[in-house]
Amino acid sequence: MDTNVQNFAVANLRRRPLVVETAGFVVGFDPGTTSPYINYATPVPGAEPTAGDVAELVEAFRGRGLKPRLEFAPDAAPAVEPALREAGFTVEAVHEYLVCTPQTLTAPRTAAGEALLVEAPAAQEEYAMIDAALAEAFSGEFGSSPEGAARLRRTQEGGGAVRYVRAPDGGCAGGALCSAPAVGTCELAGVGTRPAFRGRGIAAAVTAALAGTMFARGADSVWLEYSGEGSRRVYERVGFRPAGTRLYVSLEG
Predict the structure, then answer these.
(1) Which terminus has fewer CB within 10 Å in the chain: N or C?
(2) Same domain membership, residue 138 and residue 118
């Protein structure tokens, strides 16, 4: 699965508004933000970069005033991590990823045995309220903004999907998004529930709804990363299973 996930990472970055390809690497930039979590690179599977290749990659970031940063499945390109470490890159994190297939997907239920209503946004104000809810859910890790709402809309209109559960006051209680499929798989991300609505099965509901949507569109699998054992249990309940690891590295200074 590592090669499939890495091929997806390459294809997904090539969808960015600005793409730079250097020897063995694809870099995706979004001029609407300087966030290192959106502007990053990934290697092509099997890449064996030289010191010069890594230097060219670093310059692609430095020339734009951005931090050099990569996300990738290390087992799909074993020579990349040593080359990056030699150039001074350090590890930010190592995340296990989980994969769901049509055969493992399980519909969730609330404690009362009912299914939550999961909706797709249509109007711009819905994208804005989902963006605001996710910003609250992630404790200000990123701020709500018109650019964030616009990225959600591009995901929905570009072949991916955005789903949310409405709060009693008409706002967004929680939501998530899934990229458009590539090479048979797609990434589900940004699963977040506002603190006041946690423990009600919202994360499970939107995760299962997104996976089902992508399977209906022909995807063979959906993968995601989890942030803790609590979220892992949520994802496993709806059919996600451990499949590999992803590495996050960056260059300071």
Answers:
(1) C
(2) yes
